[in-house]
């Protein structure tokens, strides 16, 4: 893996071999995302086998999400300094080991340790963003990062194939004593990780691009002092952190509130996951053409509208009059089809918005994509760790299951307000001839 590196500046153009980098990094990210979130489905049979409480079970997925978020900044910096090819190969092969060992876990503590190690898979995102940004020119970065980010669809892989495969192989024993049922899934993933790692090593260019190879670490971290970076991080919590949180939260929400079975809940959740993942290339393409800022305005508007309706509790107002009588007013009940449709559009907005957030990074920090993208990705992933408990606490405090979407509404409203106030401040400081510009040329003056 000691490949020679080409150090490139911020104004590089799309290089020969960029297509191969994009294809293999997207395949790797899709697989790693599936591995990262596989405990969402495996948790049901794991809970039955080990007799875990709901709280104990929740920590298995939580530690994986946590570890898949906290190292995104170092992974992005390393990709800038030693090349995304090397970092991707290391993560693929290293994740295959704990994934394989999950199949042989025989205690809750062992499961927690292995789930934490499997969580390293989630850190491939920031490495892939830095890798693709180094290979694509400015005019194609939005689309390229959108295509790569569509690997989020890996969150639905285990939900779609897992239950059937688990049921079909339960009680079977395979080569090397590998058992069927839920224990077969991590073994299959481990094999696929090795295969994709070998394919990546063979297919992508050996000579990599590492724009940060010659920079001191202090210079690499310098942009993190800018408030703009932290604003982008909050945006990403809204569009990605909520995506991760809802991907895990919605199956139980459907079961508890609409009384469907788990298989149906998984399919309904997929109608949220697919647009929230597959529309990311569209978000990148739109950001390239009309500007990431305009796309973010539309994203936040749709998210506010959909979450604003979804957060309304089912029921009606009861008014107690002075004469002792009561009357009922404003009845509201959201049926399942309407709920699914609104969640679908919420997912569409998230998918487009995720690409728009990351389009900002190479625009404003073309020579620091690894560090800035890593920090933004880290906070987005941590949002997926902290939001589910917040959903649970607000539900317990209010008694309304729909408080989940109230949390999302408030978060998006904060992001939209911060973005608009920032742009308004820049426009009032700009001259009349430039006040209409709300893309990088204007924000560069702030």
Automatic annotation (TrEMBL):
Superkingdom of origin organism: Bacteria
A single Gene Ontology CC term: plasma membrane
Biological process according to GO: nitrate assimilation
Signal peptide as annotated in the record: none
Sequence similarity: Belongs to the major facilitator superfamily. Nitrate/nitrite porter (TC 2.A.1.8) family.
Protein name as catalogued: Nitrate transporter permease
Topology within the bilayer: Multi-pass membrane protein
Keyword terms, alphabetized: Membrane, Nitrate assimilation, Transmembrane, Transmembrane helix
Transmembrane segments: 21-45, 57-75, 82-102, 108-131, 143-162, 182-204, 232-250, 262-283, 295-316, 336-357, 369-391, 403-421
Main location: membrane
Subcellular location: Cell membrane
Gene Ontology MF, one: nitrate transmembrane transporter activity
Sequence ranges assigned to domain Major facilitator superfamily (MFS) profile in this UniProt record: 20-427
Pfam families: MFS_1 (PF07690)
Gene3D superfamilies: MFS general substrate transporter like domains
């Amino acid at each position: 893996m000691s490949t020679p590196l080409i150090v490139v500046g911020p104004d590089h153009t799309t290089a020969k071999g960029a297509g191969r980098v994009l294809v293999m990094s997207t395949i790797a990210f899709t697989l790693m995302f599936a591995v990262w979130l596989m405990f969402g489905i495996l948790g049901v049979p794991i809970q039955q086998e080990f007799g875990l409480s709901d709280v104990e079970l929740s920590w298995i997925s939580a530690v994986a999400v946590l570890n898949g978020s906290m190292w995104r900044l170092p992974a992005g910096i390393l990709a800038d300094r030693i090349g995304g090819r090397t970092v991707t190969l290391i993560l693929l092969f290293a994740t295959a080991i704990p994934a394989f060992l999950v199949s042989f876990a025989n205690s809750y503590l062992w499961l927690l340790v292995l789930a934490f190690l499997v969580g390293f898979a989630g850190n491939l995102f920031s490495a892939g963003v830095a890798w693709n940004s180094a290979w694509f020119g400015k005019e194609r970065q939005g689309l390229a990062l959108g295509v790569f980010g569509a690997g989020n669809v890996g969150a639905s892989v285990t939900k779609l194939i897992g239950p059937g495969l688990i049921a079909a192989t339960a009680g079977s024993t395979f080569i090397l004593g590998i058992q069927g049922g839920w224990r077969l899934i991590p073994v299959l993933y481990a094999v696929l990780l090795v295969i994709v790692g070998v394919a990546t090593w063979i297919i992508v260019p050996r000579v990599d691009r590492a724009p940060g190879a010659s920079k001191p670490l202090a210079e690499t971290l310098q942009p993190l002092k800018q408030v703009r970076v932290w604003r982008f991080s909050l945006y990403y919590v809204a569009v990605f952190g909520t995506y991760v949180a809802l991907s895990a939260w919605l199956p139980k929400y459907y079961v508890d509130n609409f009384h469907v079975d788990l298989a149906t809940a998984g399919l309904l959740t997929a109608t949220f996951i697919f647009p929230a993942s597959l529309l990311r290339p569209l978000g990148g393409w739109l950001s390239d053409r009309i500007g990431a800022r305009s796309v973010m305005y539309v994203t936040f508007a749709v998210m506010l509208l959909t979450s604003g309706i979804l957060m309304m509790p089912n029921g009606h107002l009861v008014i107690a009059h002075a004469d002792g009588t009561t009357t009922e007013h404003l009845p509201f009940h959201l049926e399942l089809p309407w709920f699914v449709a609104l969640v679908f559009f919420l997912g569409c907005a998230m998918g487009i918005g995720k690409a728009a957030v990351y389009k900002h990074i190479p625009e404003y920090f073309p020579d620091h994509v690894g560090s800035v993208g890593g920090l933004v990705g880290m906070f987005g992933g941590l949002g997926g760790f902290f939001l589910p408990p917040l959903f649970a606490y607000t539900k317990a405090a209010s008694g309304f299951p729909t408080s989940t979407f109230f949390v999302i509404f408030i978060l998006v409203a904060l992001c939209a307000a911060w973005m608009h106030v920032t742009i308004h401040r820049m426009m009032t400081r700009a001259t009349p001839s430039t006040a209409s510009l709300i893309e990088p040329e204007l924000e560069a003056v702030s």
